[in-house]
Amino acid sequence: MLYKKQGLPEVGELVMCTVKKILPHSIFVDIEEYKIEGMIHISEIAPGRIRNLRDHVREGKQIVCKALNIYREKGHVDLSLRRVNQSQRIKKVAEYKQEQKAEKILESAAKELKISLDEMYKQAGNIMIEKYGALTPCFYEVVKDQIKLKDLKIPAKIEKILTEKIKEKIQIPSVSVSSIVKLQSFSGEGIEDIKKTLKHISAYQASLTYLGAPNYKLTINAPDYKEAESVLKKITDSTTKFTKDISVKVEFKRK
């Protein structure tokens, strides 16, 4: 990838690396996003005793590492491979692939404008990276119409073509969480009170499916699980409070 993050990684940051050199007790890698070198000591490769480093890595292999020590004067970083768990690795690789896809969009726009990819970064890409940390988060904001590239002072000619290509190629990732909602009321206004409760839940832009009295399926779609879980908690808390005043018994049961 051509793009380069500014400065050095922070302690604890996950970075994508390419193995460059394997020595008896350490490995040297290129940290792709920062275009600098990093080192992994043998003790940070894997748990337990290691007889041969090549059983775990090989030259040219891409690996996800965690930044341990940052030597800013030297521009050097100590890394760990063993402190990255599987879920962190999967997430980082996915983010890296998304950023590669984003760079392809920049490259396509550059070709249409008959400028180099390097020039495209100078006039647009680096501006987005400086504000958002990477291209992909900025592209998502463009797709959601939460920002216009002209607001970032990107030249109008580039802004027009790049916006068209972003909206054509980028899809916002979506996950869903669901819960079974049980609603019961034994008051004289029971049916109306349950309708009010369903209307209250629907105000959160959640999807409700009738499963047969007294159960409904609540589905929440969001860009990631953290946001989806946050919305579910808001619905659960507010609905529980709402139904206390209208004599409706409500239960939420995760699927």
Write up what this structure looks like.
With about 260 residues, the protein is an alpha+beta fold. The protein has three domains: about 15-85, OB fold (Dihydrolipoamide Acetyltransferase, E2P), CATH 2.40.50.140; about 95-170, Translation initiation factor 2, subunit 1, domain 2 (DNA polymerase, domain 1); about 175-255, Alpha-Beta Plaits, CATH 3.30.70. Helix content is about 40%, strand content about 25%. The protein contains six helices and nine strands, in the order βββββααααβαββαβ. Strand 7 and strand 8 form a beta hairpin. Helix 5 (about 190-200) runs antiparallel to helix 6 (about 225-245).
Shape: flat
Strand content: 25-35%
Q: Give me the side-by-side strand order of the main sheet.
A: 1-2-3-5-4
Number of strands: 9
Give the biggest beta sheet.
Answer: 5 strands, mixed, barrel
Radius of gyration: 25 Å
Quick overview of this protein structure:
The chain has helices at residues 86-113, 117-132, 135-143, 156-169, 190-202, 225-244, and strands at 14-22, 26-31, 36-41, 62-71, 76-80, 175-184, 207-212, 215-222, 249-254. It is of the alpha+beta class. A hairpin with a 4-residue loop joins strand 2 and strand 3.
